[in-house]
């Protein structure tokens, strides 16, 4: 999805380049607050006293294992299936575990990338959101969905006091708005009403006449807008004097 959003942005604003920067999940909030990024895809929860956030989706949780691990024989893994495994819990873990399945490692790896290396070495297994499993994919590893595991929700977030027009434009792209949509943009007083505002104004009924009234009037008129003659009783013969 980020690649699609960047493509749409570049089509609409070719003179304003948009750059994607990958950072560890725990560093994203700091980058936004320091002004190193205008907006970010972050994992919830975030501090809503300083950030605005639009929830986007919730990721499936998977367990990353060597390709010869026993759980690869099934399509979905239960937490009890990992009871005999060492489950690695990196320091930058984005999942909120109260009780880890399996046996915890004696030392926690610093990053998810380090944990993946340990899985490849046969030291343990790793439980992560699906996107991280794909990000750190290796030919000698695979993953399976983990049933009843904590999930990770992703949101578009930005500092609340830094809601610029460009941030609003990017929000519009993420929400699928068309290029002509003005939702979310602040109106420029110097330019007056936007084209959408003017179109809406043209569609508003005249004072004293409702849309229903216009419909009723339309029904009373014949072709060409002329009213039907009074006393015209179509379908009945007229009496001759």
Q: How would you sum up this structure in a few lines?
A:
The chain has 241 residues and is of the alpha/beta class. Helix content is 25%, strand content 17%. The model is unreliable at 186-234 (pLDDT under 50).
Question: Explain this structure to me?
Answer:
The longest helix is centred in the N-terminal third of the chain and has 11 residues, at 2-12. The strands form 2 sheets. The chain has a 5-stranded mixed β-sheet. It has a 3-stranded antiparallel β-sheet with strand order 1-8-2. It folds into 2 domains: 2-58 and 153-174, D-Maltodextrin-Binding Protein, domain 2 (3-Layer(aba) Sandwich), CATH 3.40.190; 61-150, Periplasmic binding protein-like II (D-Maltodextrin-Binding Protein, domain 2), CATH 3.40.190.10. With 241 residues, the chain is of the alpha/beta class. It is elongated, with a radius of gyration of 30 Å. 25% of the residues lie in helices and 17% in strands. The protein contains 7 helices and 8 strands. The model is unreliable at 186-234 (pLDDT under 50). The termini are far apart.
Instruction: Give the overall form.
Output: elongated
Average pLDDT taken over every residue: 79
CATH class of the largest domain: Alpha Beta
Gap from first CA to last CA: 82 Å
Based on the coordinates given, report the CATH architecture of the largest domain: 3-Layer(aba) Sandwich
> How helical, in percent, are the residues?
25-40%
The neighbouring-strand order within the major sheet is: 5-4-6-3-7
| Succession of helices and strands | HHEEEEEHEHEEHHH
Q: What characterizes the major β-sheet?
A: 5 strands, mixed
Count of helical segments?
Answer: 7
Q: Beta fraction of the residues?
A: 15-25%
CATH fold-level topology of the largest domain: D-Maltodextrin-Binding Protein, domain 2
CATH superfamily of the largest domain: Periplasmic binding protein-like II
Low-pLDDT windows of residues: 186-234
Record field, number of beta strands: 8
Please give the radius of gyration in angstroms.
30 Å
